[in-house]
């Protein structure tokens, strides 16, 4: 059953996913978006809005997009009384995408953004629902709330007593657990769990180059070409256009309320070796040297620390190895049965078919962010 969703409050509009989702959302001429954006004052806020509008097709009317000065780490999302009243009067839905995806934050830092911010979003959604003109909250989590679990992970699962590899996984899991309790108490919401999001499958375009792009960039720049990891480790990659299209399709269906969706490759995930093979077709570089992760941890990592500290590239390489080593060692497999049921023909393309395009875009843009 479809529902009319016309005026949406959006967090994370200028981020990796938001930069792909927002133009799609605004392609409906009847749609209006209030985007929470942090700025020093109204002058900076309007300048950021104009910069964002310049990235949109000319067919969009500027009045469709309103920026609201806010901060997810503050009570009421940092929104002023006037802006908050406008949201209460007009917004009938929320899409929450804002998060810190850094792996090296302390738990306190990750909590302020990912947990406390998520709680404020849920509280606002509850207030809007009580206000009487609210359809739904679409909440973007991550498949990696699974943490250190092994084997197949199902969409209905969340708190299985798992340990976590970093503060990002931990904070996103805790935030999702809170939201699930809110949903159990009647909040109209759905949870979307993307896996590793990369650029557009057709053009390779990406608003920024974080997550998997970081170790790829270090290899590309020649800073480090030894990989502590297993070449057969599975990497679950999905293009940003698939994730954006999926969320927008799912949010039109009232039957998706109360459910969780793995927006992931699932059984079609590829291996690290597949990624490396495609990288070597894009850049002319020596082959990757693999080192067993246990050997790296026990015998090589600590003696290498002084050498890593000598250069900027070395310091960056050390941070990347420490952050990504768990993901290069083992990853769970994400079941997508619920998402498949509601998405129908909308399925992620195989990364084997588009990842070279993604890599070429990153290399051609020298890994320089282009987010508005």
**Shape summary:** globular
CATH superfamily of the domain at 7-208 and 236-267 and 332-349: NAD(P)-binding Rossmann-like Domain
**What is the CATH class designation of the domain at 7-208 and 236-267 and 332-349?**
Alpha Beta
CATH architecture group name of the domain at 7-208 and 236-267 and 332-349: 3-Layer(aba) Sandwich
Query: What ranges have pLDDT less than 50 throughout 5 or more consecutive residues?
Result: none
Q: Tally the beta strands.
A: 15
| Widest beta sheet: strand line-up | 3-2-1-4-5-7-12
Description of the molecule:
The protein has helices spanning 18-26, 42-54, 81-90, 107-131, 167-184, 213-220, 240-250, 272-282, 293-308, 312-329, 337-343, 351-364; strands at 7-11, 32-37, 65-69, 93-96, 136-140, 152-153, 189-194, 196-198, 226-228, 234-235, 237-239, 260-263, 270-271, 289-291, 333-334. It has twelve helices and 15 strands. It has a domain at 7-208 and 236-267 and 332-349: NAD(P)-binding Rossmann-like Domain (Rossmann fold, 3-Layer(aba) Sandwich), CATH 3.40.50. The strands form five sheets. Strands 3-2-1-4-5-7-12 form a seven-stranded parallel beta sheet, sandwiched between helices. It has a two-stranded parallel sheet with strand order 6-15. It has a two-stranded parallel sheet with strand order 8-11. The protein is 43% helix and 15% strand. It is α/β, with parallel strands linked by helices and 372 residues long.
